[in-house]
Amino acid sequence: MKKYLFLCLILCLETTNAASINNFSGGYDVSNWSQSLNGGTIDTSGAPNSIIETSSNLDPGFMTNNKSADTDFTVASLGSGLVNFAWLYNTSDWDSSYDPFGSLLNGVFTQITVDGISTSQSGAASFNVLAGEVFGFRAHSIDSAFGAATTTISNFSAPAAVPVPAAVWLFGSGLMGLIAMRKKPSHLSALPA
Q: DSSP characters for 58-123?
């Protein structure tokens, strides 16, 4: 019985390993991300350690365009789990309410910066994703005027896919069968043929 439990434990542990990729590397290398600029910029020269996302500032203060624009940096999640990152935000606009920064999950924007309190903010954030969901970061500009906001994203980590090799299941099920055959119940051997 102990062998059964041990084998089941080993097989179950193989499927429950929660792995993550740290920084913009591996499956989350910046080359795997999609960029939607809309007048903003995404500087990936600091990768794999950090990226810098800048909101749109198409109209340098004359209010002729006065249009909202989103600068997005997105990728499909490789696994299920927690996305973590640190952020450092600065805006040259009147205040942070004109150029909020936040996370994206399946196209839904969640603002992380706090409106109106300061032109400089920082913090750490996390959110859950499922394998295949599209997540990322957005620099939103309300008016694309009077200055942009720049956010540095660092200490990034996200869930990695942890496939269980078919050989583990094949080997494990065969081993379970051998153990079961070896432990033939004693009451069956006492029966006449």
A: -BSSS-SS---EEEEEEEE-SSSEEEEEEEEEEE-SSSGGGS-EEEEETTEEEE-SPTTS-SEEEE
